[in-house]
Amino acid sequence: MIYEMRVYRCVPGRLPALLKRFETATLKIWEKHGIKQAGFFTTLIGESNQELTYFLAWDSLAEREKKWGAFMTDPDWLEARAKSEADGQIVGNIVSQILAPTAFSAVK
């Protein structure tokens, strides 16, 4: 199992719109494509409180490429993203890292 950590840095004031998009649209589309989330977090203390950090669990890089590619081109996703951004851009920057658990990690 490998994990992907994604950090979305929102345009100021737009974090609520991002959270709503995940809760009402994105997660349903991920379910359709078999994308497994491993946790979502907002920043209480840190550089910015306008961030959403989440983790995805993948069996392999090949699985990630296949499923993420299908999600990103899904017409339902494209429509949901456009609709959620009708009032303006939500995300200013996305950082993604692929992580492998160590032998002593509680998460495998």
UniProtKB/TrEMBL annotation:
Q: Where is the NIPSNAP domain?
A: 3-105
Q: Which Pfam families match?
A: NIPSNAP
InterPro entries in the cross-refs: Dimeric_a/b-barrel, NIPSNAP
Q: What is this protein called?
A: NIPSNAP family protein
